[in-house]
Amino acid sequence: MDDIIIAHEIMQEHEIERYFEIWRESVMRSRLTITAVFLKIANTTEPNTNHQVTSFLQSKLRKTDLLFQLSDGNHWGIFFLQSSDVEARAFLKRIFAILKAERKLQHIALNASITEIRNNNVMFEDLLVKNKEMLAGDEQLTWTITEVKDYSEQPTELVKVSIIEQNAIFRQVLESGLNRLDIPHFTLEVKNYEDGYSFLQSDSYKTGHLHLVIMNDILPRKNGLEILHIMRNMPNEKKFIIYMLSERNSEGAALNAYEGGVDEYIVKPFNLRLLEAKIKRTFARFWL
Amino acid sequence: MIKLSISFLITIIAILLVVLFIFMVYLLVQRQRESHFENARDRYIQNYSQLWYDYLFNKEHFSMVLVPRGRAQVEAIELIFSSYLKNIINEKVQCDIKQFSNQYLKKFYEKDLLSKRWSIRMNALYRIADLQIDELLIMCQEFEKTKISEEEYFQLLKIYSIFQSNLFMEKIKMPIVSYSESEYRRLFVLLEDDVFIRFFDDFNSWPANIQFAVIDTAPVKRNMQYIDQLKKLLSHDVAEINIRALKGLYEMGVIDEIESYIPFVTSDMWEARLMVAKVFKHVPLTYSYSYLEQLLQDENWWVRSQAAKTIVEDRYGIAKLQQFIESSNDQYAIEMAQEIAARKEENK
Amino acid sequence: MKIIDYGMLLFGGIILFYMLFVIVSYCAMFIIAMLDLRKSYRLDPSEYDDAHIDAFYSKPVSLLVPAYNEEVGVVDTVYSLLNLRYPQTEIIIINDGSTDQTLQTVIEHFQMKPISKIVRTNIPTKQIKQIYESEIYKNCILVDKENGGKADALNVGINVSQYPYFCSIDGDSILDEKSLLRVMKPIILSDGEVIAAGGNIRIANGAKMQYGSIYETQLPTNYLVIMQVIEYLRAFLMGRIALSKFNLVLIISGAFSVFSKKWAVEAGGYSTNIIGEDMELVVTIHRLIKEKKEKKRIEFVPDPVCWTEAPQTLGVLRNQRRRWHQGLFESLWKHKKMTLNPRYGKIGFISFPYFWLVECLGPIVELGGYIYIVIAFFLGKIYYEIALILLLLFVIYGVIFSIAAILFESWSMNTYPKKRELLRMILLAFTEIFWYRPLTLFWRCEGLIRFLLRKSDWGNMKRVGIAEKEKSQ
């Protein structure tokens, strides 16, 4: 009988819990969204269905997705790492369409719920309970996709912003502009410095926070390139987003700066609105 | 005799003492004035730069307290404006600054233009151009008729080029004063493309300095229409113009065919050979390698060096150089190829 | 008695005549400098600075820093060069076989890594040991070479440099951030007609400085240093401006000067067997210009500022002055054929005689003047009166030139000195003639004697370190 697909080993609820706890923490640390999808068979008629569903789901997953079976036997869970609810929904639509079209599997009808996780306030038990409740509704409905919204609230992260610029009037412009900047899920703590030395003295760059540095390349007492070098040689250098402003319009100077590790080299005069848009875009990329 | 000379000497001493006293008083008074002036200026900046920011960037209402009273405040405003204009491009801000300057600063610069002091007049001319006080254009034209220095005339040309390009073209055709290349560049760089391109129409009629500055300015304008103009100059009789045109084309970075450049590989001028080695940076190595190999064995150090650098920029450049090192027997060329290849490896 | 009387009269006459000549030439310089500075006083320099920060308007410059036992100062010098507002530069530090930690200090501070680089030998020099490149600043190079003297180190720098102009900076000096831009101004604006330019040197003692930036200037407290401050102002702001106006400059300070590489190489680079190698190069280039009949100029520019540490003790100052004067004599002597030679035009007819008479022989005559006053004082009533009055005259005339120099400084910097500092400088200027002037005159005469004595043994002259000033710290 070729329509019986042999089910592979599938992970069980108790095995997955420990993995989940690691992922949950990396949601915060690495800003990686994970999405959990739970599935339940809507019409339990034929005996062999569970195996068929398991095999079917397993054949449709990517390598970064993880399938497991709940201890009650008729729920499946899938963790999509680095994915948002958009991708999970697309996945579900795809497999629902296949199931409806495939004649051999036409006896199966599923319901699904999606949970997007963007913070670490979620316990594994709660996740299961909430989703089971969602799926426990009316038996008559099939192919429904519901959502658990409880964990999709992104935490607000503190970003340190340092402006290092010699011209006091322009420094004030930058500071006001950045203070006004509204970036979802990030709060900016703006500080300004008039030269490289006072920035290095402040020690504020040593904390683990994300740190946006907007500085001139030429500064009295430790210039921009040296500060760049110091920051890029720190063990957690990835936390720095470095924008260098320069009045030196020369190809060589820009190349040196990029090779030294700036994220943007902007020649003055520049458009302030564009700078703000660039900064916003940079932060938007951190989360899916 | 000695008696006489003693009284004479004493008179001189007295005169010198008076001179000394005058110098000292002058210095002390000036110091006093200067610190008063600076205090007033800094006070204005401190009190009103936030207001200025709110007005220019946050579209808040204009407040009459911002209107300058006295020179110190004018200087403060100049400092604030120049900090904005130097660092930020924003059309609305530029427009507001222009409007404000026309309305409230005009009278100060008008007076400065009539000053006896050259430096004061120069500063006024600077500001008229920077802050775009176009209402003073007529006054500037009047000013031109008085006896003015070359530097002032240069500033006037700059002002014309901003406000009235036709007038500018008219003036520059009259060879009253001749400026250096870098000064002409400063004049040309701000010109609109449709004005600037007119320089190519009758290229040979311009003096050499203008010709050179035009060629050098063209690539900075980043407009494809100048490629053809520069290519035409490759066949000009003057070697310096050929070389500069090559440099300009290299800077434009768009080389659509290499036929026009090949004659320069065997040029008598090493500068031309150097430039053509640079131009080949923008050409796939498969087309240019045979010429670059020729340049790599050039008698001139700079040409050899540039040829090697150009080759090594290609993805397969190092392999090509290794091949060359093995097969060639030109010791100088091999050394150069080795150094450049080694540097490239180091930087990986 | 009669003979003494006539002798004294003759002696006094010569001195008076000489003094009149000097005073007239100083007055001429004073007026020329005043007209020049007065013109640009209050001119806003930022207009030029801002436009020319763009690489499109300027020419790239190689900055050469020769260092011999400069472990204390060289890092600050390099920091100040890194902070220059100039679009395109390369910094070449040349370690001239230092015996202290100069090499290690630079390598550590700027993370230098050895690189392989072929150097074109434009000028023959001592052997290069190793070339390094900074990991932080790609345009910063360190050359380690065998000891050969400052001139030889500079020649190595010229060979290594890749740009058409080079600027020499002493390993214990600090450049102001806009100074390079401004010293290059005559070169850029004349389309290369100016082939060398020198800037203003000021004394950094008393200024507060960190990582190559001067952030507060203050008049130093040491009287010897204040006296030098005044002396520098006079020398630079009166003498050199006036000479520069007519292309007559024979000295642009080696501590901060820019040269066209082409011309310097043609002149054979810096001479290694002479003390005043900076003056020597300028004179040689002048000679070259005239011999090739080209229309080129060498200029002094008053507003670019280079800060340098002045000697704080008499011993070091004596050494410095002795060497300067010996160097001056050497160069003049070497090119003595140019004096009053119509082939060299104004240089031969004005500069050379001026330097011979005022700068070179001046100390002897002035010293004679001091001796005259002392003798006259002891000889009797008539002499003693006239001697006193003459003395008074010279004091006041000295003070007037000093205060004029302070005024010029205020005009060229667009800022006036503080009241207290001004008064202190003026008061000190009154005393100059009683201690500072005779001391320096004496040292300069010493330099002259040394020149006369050692004239024959140039070849094996013992090398003096690049900067002995550093000992003063």
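qc> The interface with chain A takes residues 50, 53-56, 79, 82-88, 111, 135-139, 177, 210-213, 215 of chain C (CB under 8 Å).
qc> done
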